[in-house]
Every structure is written in C-alpha cells, then in structure tokens.
Amino acid sequence: MRSHHLLGTMALLLAAGCAAEAKRPQSASSARPADIVTIARDPFPSTYRALPGRTTLIRGAIVYDGRGGKIVNGMVLLQGGKIAAIGPKIAAPADAVVIEAAGKFVTPGVIDIHSHLGDYPTPGVQANSDGNEVTGPVRSEVWAEHSIWPQDPGFTRALSNGGVTTLHILPGSANLFGGRGVTIKNVAGETSQSMKFPGAPYSLKMACGENPKRVYGSKGQAPGSRMGNVALMRQTWARAVEYKRRWDDYTARAKDGKAKPTDAPGRDLQMDTLVGVLNGEILVQNHCYRADEMANIIDMSKEFGYHVSAFHHAVESYKIADLLKANNVCSAMWADWYGFKMESFDGIQENIPFVHAAGACAIVHSDDAGGIQRLYQAAAQAMANGNRMGLNIAPETAWEWISINPARALGIADRTGSLEPGKMGDVVLWNGDPFSVYTRPEKVWIDGALLFDVNDPRLRPVSDFELGQPGEGDVK
Amino acid sequence: MRPLFALALLLAATPAAAQTVAIVNARLAPGTGGAETVENGTLVIANGRIAAMGANIPVPAGARTLDAHGGWVTPGIFASLSNLSVAEVFEGVPETNDARAENAAYGAALDIAPAVNPRSVHLPISRIAGVTRAAVTPEPGKSIFAGQGALIDLGAADPVTRARAFQYVDLSQSGARTAGGSRPAAFLEFRNAMRDAVDYARNPAAFPGGRERTSLGNRRDAEALVPVVQGRQLLLVKVERAQDIRNVIGLKREFPALRIALVGAAEGWLVAADIAAAGLPVISYALGDLPESFDSLAATQSNVGRMVRAGVRVALSGQGSGTGEQPRKLPTDAGNLVALSRIPGATGLTHAQALAAITSVPAEIFGMGAQTGTLSPGKIADVVVWSGDPLELTSTPVAVFIDGRAQPMVSRQTELRDRYLGLQRGDLTLRYKRGPSPRTQ
Q: What is the value of ipTM here, to two decimals?
C-alpha cells in the first residue's frame, strides 16, 4: 500500500496537525482500522517530483534571504535540490557549477498566495472558465485543483518574468465558502497532481462583502446583504460543528468496538472541508476588503474555534492593522488597486507598508495573470510609498512580503520562503536590483533544478496550447 | 529630497495663476523620443507656458526658484484611453460609470463630454502621479461605435479641452460579437455607417429617419460620423488580431480620408511593416503577454518595441477598464519596456522612446502635439518634477505643473493615508482627524 493511502486511512480524527501525523504508527489505535469508516484526507495525492539539478554555487551577489536578512557579496549553494548553505563565503564543492553574480541579486523564489492560474486560464474563454462554482453560496466541497488546466500559459510567464516558484490557486469569490485552494510548485506538467506542493495544507477560500451578496441576492436567494453573509456563514459553521461531533462520537465508539461501519454518519463533502478547518489542518484564506467586515469575520472565527490565516484583497487593513496584529492574521494586498468596487473605494497606496509598520503580517498578492509577473515590482512600490511616509523599510525587509510571509500564511514556511539551509532550492538570480523596473529574472531554480535561464532558449517553457500558434509562448 | 518636497508644498500653497517659476539643477528629459536629456538644466515657466529650457538658461528676475537637486523633469503624462472623471466606482457601482451606455439607442452620436466630472476623486489621484492630460474614451454599448471622446486637462476647473476629439469603433473579436456575431457583421456595420455618413453629408434633409428612437439614433449617428468619413475627426479602431489589422488598413483604401489610430493591436508586431507603411499610429497596452483571447494569440511584451522598430508611432495605454487599470501606472509600464532591452530575443524601447510613448506620442496622436507633450519652449507648461527616474518603481512626482500652475499634491487617498498614519487612536475616534484636502487648497 502506498504511503498516501496510509495517510487516508489514518483519517480525520487523529487530532490536530498535519504533516507530522503521517509518521505516527498505526498501533496508536487499538481498533482494527478496517472496521472504522474514515474520511480520506488526501485522495488526489501529489505526484510532484523535484527535477534533477546540479550542485550550484552562486557567488558575488547581493543576497536577500527572504526573512529580512541581506548579505552583500554573498554566496548561495544549491545541492541535492536544497539550499545547502548561504553566507559571505562558501567553498565550492568539486562538482559545483559556479555562477559569478557580481552586480546581480539572489532571492528566494517569489510566492503568490492568491492566483487563479489554471482555473481562470488564458485564453479567457468560457469553456475554460472554471474558477467559481456559482451554483450556491456554500460550495466548500469543490476543490480548485480539479479546475486547474496545467497548460495555462500564465504559469510560464509567472516563472520567466515573475520569478514565481510557488503559488496558491484559489477558487473565486462568488461564494461565501468558495472551496478548497491548493498550493503548487510552478513546474507545469500534464496534471495538477504533478504540480502539487508535497505536504502543503489545503486552504478554504471564503469571501465576505459585495460578491456573494450580489451574486445570490440578485437571484432572490440568500445571502442578499452583508448581515445575510454573516448569518449564512455562521449557520454553516454551526452545521460543521455538529458534523464533526457526529464523526468524533462515531469514531470514538468504533475504536471501542461499539460501532459498526453502518453506524458511520453520512458523508458530506462540504462539511469535510470545514471540519478540516476546525481541526486546524486546512487554512482559511478569506477574501475581505473592508475593515469592519474583517472584524466581524475575526469574531466569527472565535465563536467557532478556527483561525483566519489571511485576509485577501484586504484594501482596508490599514484601518485596523492593530486588530490584525493582535489576532495574528495576515493581510494579502495589492500595492495600489482601488476604486473599482465600493468596497475598494478607500484603497490607499500605503496599505501594505502601514500594515507592516503596525507589526502585522503583510503579503503582496496578485489575483491576476499579469500582476503575478510583477509582484516584486509591487513590493518595491509599496516599500517606496511607505518610506516617503518616514517608515524606513529596507528592501530585504520588503522582500518578506513576497517570500516568508506568504509561506507562513500557506503553512509551508518550514520548507520554502527563505534561503536557509535545508529548505527547498527555490531561488531566483536577478539581472540587477529586483526593486528596479529595469530588472528581470535571469535564472530561476525550483527544488534545485534550473527551470528558466534568460540566456538559454532551451530553458523557456512553452505550454501545449501555444505550440504552433503565432506567439509560441512569447519566447522568441 | 525633503527640501524639494517642502518647496513643492510651498509652491502649491500659493495661488499660482501666471507665476513665473524656474526649475533649476534639473535633469531635463524632453519627451521627444530621440534627444538626450539635459543635465544640470533649467526650465522656466511663465504665463502658463514653457518659456525656456536648457543647460545655460538664466533665471528670470522675480521668478520663484525650485531646485530639483539633480532630479528628473519631464513633460506631464498623457493618458490615452481612459475613463478618468467619467467613472467613479466603475465596476461595483455601475450607475457612476458613464463610459458605456449599454442600453442607449445611439452609438457614434454619443458625446462623452457631459460626463466629465471635474470633482471626480480620480483626477487628483492621477494628477499627483504626474498625469496631466487624458483622452477620455467611451466604451461600446449596443453599437460597435462607442461614441465621441474628449481630451481633458487634469488641472483645469473645466477639464474638457476638446469635446468630440475622436470617435471610437470596435472591430476586434468583441466588436464582432456586438455587431451580431461575426467579423463580417462588424465590417458590414462599419461600411454601412460610413456610407450613411456620406449620404447624410450630401443631403441631410433627404436622409431617412423618423422620430422613433432607433431611427433617430441612426440619423444622429450618421451625422456624427460625417467628420470621421471626411477625415476631420480622428477614428480610434480597436483591433487586436494581425489579420484584422490588415483588414482595417484595407478600409482606409476604401475610405481614404479616414484618419485612423489603432487601439490594442496585440498582434501588431506580426504586421508592423504594413502598419508603418499605412502610416497608422497605435495605442497599445505595454505589458500584455498572454493569449487573453483568440484575438491575441501572438501577444508579447515585445509588441511595442517591434512596432516602434518598424517605424510605427506607438503610445502606451492602460489595459482598458480592468481592476488594476490606472493611468498613473503608465510610467512603470513604460519602464518595463526598457527592461526588455536586456532580454535576449526581446525587443524593448530606449528610455527616451518609452518616455515619449506616454507624453509626446499620445499628444501627437490626439492632435495636441503642437501644444503639449514635450518640454519645448512655447508649449503649455505641463511639467513634472520627479523624486528619481520617472519610469522607476520607487519614484514619484514631487511637483506637478499643469498649464503652468503648481498643483496641490493631495488627494482623497492622501487624506485617508494621513488619517491612518501611525494609527494613533486618541480621545476622539479617527473620524475627527483631518488634514489638508484637495478641496480646501
């Protein structure tokens, strides 16, 4: 039996936690597993395999480590797919490819916590428009990964122009409960399974505000107002609590040999996702623009015993950055989008630096196939806007907004998001200062494999869709 | 940098109708596309015009002096294709969006000018980012003809500099849908409209059309297209696919007086030589590099560079009315094209070309090249003093002059920013905290 099946049979009820759980011996339970009905936790397991890389030493560069550190004239060693070392001086292993990078910059790969690549791909035709299950406000049973079209040309642009190595694909925001989001490595293959970030927790996409109430209110359905949004969200969480209680009770009885498989509660895929949240295994990524609504969501999360990982499109986070800090909730933000909806009317260009300055967790996100190519530029603009207000944010600090902070909010900070020994070899070499508009990625490594090289035409991926088309992947 | 900001504030605080100002110690980037920048230069603004610019220009007696400390000075940004001041919350509150009249019986006859709102919050927001002029463009509703756009002055109490400055028609894939479902339908609608205009011009009294809304619409639309078919009004043609561009060039052979500028032209690079030979200017989004539709399968960030290299005049525009669309992004969009010049296989622009694509080229396309768009003496003083390289991510204007007047560097956004800076929650709620307002200055 393959390991992911083991994971599945271990089921829901092995308390909280995720990755560590897989290693726990099954003898922890006295009942025979076959007699206990369980809910598979990973029925679409990752088949991602790191591509082969070469031992590589980059030296002479300015290095941002992704968690606030900077080394001038620094070195980074990639070995065995990992960051093997980072520092001012590293001896080159005998087999190492040595890259002289004077005048260039090295950073961790960019992480986008909010993307719809694959589920709203280009070309933007209705036939491939799969990001929203607009058939009911509670659709937590749908999973974004089942909509991902791996041939979306956007993945390649995010790699070659954006230096994006990890991205989180979310369902859209038509629904209060939009479904599960999935974290993927930007290594486009033939299946979404082949892109899935091994061991990354799922997310639950939630949305407050204008979208759900407009989509359903206009059909004469609930929710038709913001209070309707909150009411339906609370009712749904209450159902999830009951569902969890039934399964907890059944499982405890089954373990004691007092329940038969036919006693197991009925499966409800909507509730499975929500129970994952209540158990701390699935992270909540909550679309929410307005400050007052974020405060309501925080209270609701306390009522039902879960934690919001990040508010997305959090245009008004600057108004309650102190509250967000106190509740340890990240804000995923654009540098300057504003004014297109009523709930974005109060957007300011200092949102990101103000959230950062308050000591809260700031993230730059894209939500856009163009924006994902320029997240580093958005970070630069946000930093400069903050510094004009006297905030004195260093570039190596601002880089956290597109590396370690999104990694934390996605639950993968122990594996990527910074240049630390043992972490994944997700690295970008820039042809200059990445906070200059004149700079682009020169080389991008993912898990130590060189997957983009601006000077090597063979290392410019082209999606199947673009083969034989006049653009040919924009790689000429 | 601080003294410069302080000086800019001082300037802005003075009612400055016809002030004489000398910007000294400046790196003058003229916006012409070819000429070199002038280091250590001086630019003199008098009577609303650029009086002089260059390396050894004396400061006139009595002039207010602004020391740029070696910083860049450029012409103001000219935003091609914009919904500035005609759409307040353009997506979420459609009743505030006058760019598109989806249920109107009229098309070409629609005139955007009455929708221009001098008190739109977006004007100061764009203005303090260095945008001094814009072409306000209607969007197509029921007809492929969206109507007539206006040129606006972001520093004027009455912003409309020229109403009915251009007509807009969509002959792209989306225009084909509007026309009834196919490109043949769109091109037929276009030809029919041109012939109607010719007929109308020949004898307005004989032109058919009753008093019903739709037939009156036809009559008014025909009337509105007379200056287009006679070449007296610029026609913007939205088109993306290379073959559609060639078909539009063909229309010009059929209606030779047409003065066409292509809009979009995502696949323009495939037929750049044809566009250049036909002498058509192009207004294009700089950064589209994805096959957004089957109209734009060849999209590439090298599109603009390749067209310019072929001899096409290209102005940069925003993406249309997308969520991230703001004219204030034009300088960094232009900067991104400069970045391409370092990418093997890509074609970018020089810094001077990129600056021209957001200043002088759009001014020329919209018929204002003689008045604005460069730092040439005699032109209207639309001038921006920057904190750094104007195309850089970390730069911002420190002073903006429009028609020679220093603009207040405040907006609704800066008011919100100042209210929440530091989140100082005191004895009163933040509702009581107010700073300088664009209304009070």
A: 0.94
